[in-house]
Specification:
The chain is an all-alpha fold. The protein folds into three domains: 126 residues, no CATH class; 96 residues, no CATH class; 63 residues, no CATH class. The protein contains twelve helices and no strands. Helix 1 runs antiparallel to helix 3. The radius of gyration is 50 Å and the shape is elongated. The protein starts with a helix and ends in an 18-residue tail after the last helix.
């Protein structure tokens, strides 16, 4: 109903022209009679005043040029007003639909003799009265707060609901309207804190108004929002630090468990190899090899091809061919000139 009335207010403005205001067509009969009474102060009857401009009568044969011009101008204004009043009535009938329109139509002549203001106010008086469903709708509107819309957009929506409920003498006091705003924003931390500050600054209920509270919230909201964002960023940073520390501790524990498991597996594997088994010497040798990572430049300098090298003692003053320790070793170990990788290790470093 509100949207329908607003639409016809716009239509009447569009159909109006400087010489005639089309809102006259929607004025109630009582309001029209107040402006144009049908009786004078003494109670004598007066002729009724038409809502539409009346066309001038015929001109005399000796009419002057000025009279002809004035008559033509009044005729044009009257014709234009009549034409646009018919457009306004057609818009009314079309907008309310055939069911409601039939309630104001004559059985024989339809709406030919029905004035536009009669149709307009019949719809308002019959269907514009709020019922319980409308009250529930506006009460739900007052409890809703749209976080995606600006603060003043929500306040404007609440004011419209107040205006509608005021016709039923509901929520007329400032206390009730402030309570509605508090209830609608109870889940919005930034606004709830500002309302609390407003109550502290205005402890007397007589000084509290919905308009002042809304203006105070709008003024303080940017600062409160910035503070909440800063606190949230600090909380996120602290949570990130805690998470990183936990992950680091878990990674260190996992590495320790892996190292211990590998060491236990290596010892268990070496213990199971018989002394006379093939490769037993190799397994025994690996127990004394200290694991190393990526070789350094100094390590690589020692491994220059051609340098005297002993597979059992490393880079010494003798070669594998004259080493008594390698007497039973394979020939390739005796002939080695530089260490090759053995089980991911780079030769023996025990005696270096």
């Amino acid at each position: 109903m509100v949207a329908w009335r607003a639409a016809f207010a716009a239509i009447t403005r569009q159909l109006s022209f400087p010489e005639y205001d089309m809102e006259i067509q929607l004025m109630t009969e009582d309001d029209w009679l107040i402006l144009h009474p049908i009786i004078d102060a003494a109670g004598a009857p007066l002729p009724p005043t038409s809502r539409l401009p009346v066309r001038p009568g015929p001109l005399p044969n000796n009419a002057t040029t000025a009279q002809v011009a004035i008559s033509a101008q009044r005729t044009a204004i009257s014709d234009k007003a009549i034409e646009r009043s018919l457009i306004l009535k057609a818009c009314l009938i079309e907008s309310i639909g055939p069911d409601i329109a039939s309630e104001t139509a004559d059985f024989a002549r339809g709406h030919l003799d029905v004035e536009s203001h009669t149709i307009y106010h019949y719809v308002i008086n019959t269907y514009g009265i709020m019922d319980r469903d409308d009250v529930l709708y506006f009460e739900a509107e007052l409890e809703r707060w749209d976080l995606e819309k600006p603060f003043m957009a929500n306040v404007t929506r609440m004011r419209n609901a107040f205006a509608q409920l005021a016709t039923l003498n509901m929520l007329n006091s400032e206390v009730e309207r402030i309570a509605a705003l508090v209830k609608a924003t109870r889940h919005v931390p930034s606004i709830s804190g500002i309302i609390h500050q407003y109550m502290i600054l205005n402890p007397a209920m007589a000084t509290q108004t919905f308009a002042n509270l809304a203006a105070y919230i709008q003024l303080q909201l940017p600062f409160a929002t910035a503070l909440i964002r800063a606190n949230a960023a600090a909380a996120n940073s602290a949570a990130h630090d805690v998470t990183l520390a936990n992950l680091t501790a878990e990674l260190a524990a996992s590495r320790a468990e892996t190292t211990a498991a590998l060491a236990a597996a290596a010892l268990a594997g070496a213990a199971k190899v018989p002394a006379n088994a093939p490769g037993a010497g190799k397994a025994k040798f690996q127990r004394y090899v200290e694991p190393k990572g990526k070789p350094s430049a100094a390590d690589k300098a020692k491994w220059t091809p051609g340098r005297t090298y002993c597979w059992a003692h490393g880079f010494q003053g003798h070669t594998g061919s004259v080493c008594t320790t390698l007497a039973a070793a394979p020939q390739w170990k005796k002939d080695a000139l530089s260490p090759g990788p053995l089980n991911s290790q780079y030769g023996s470093r025990i005696n270096e």
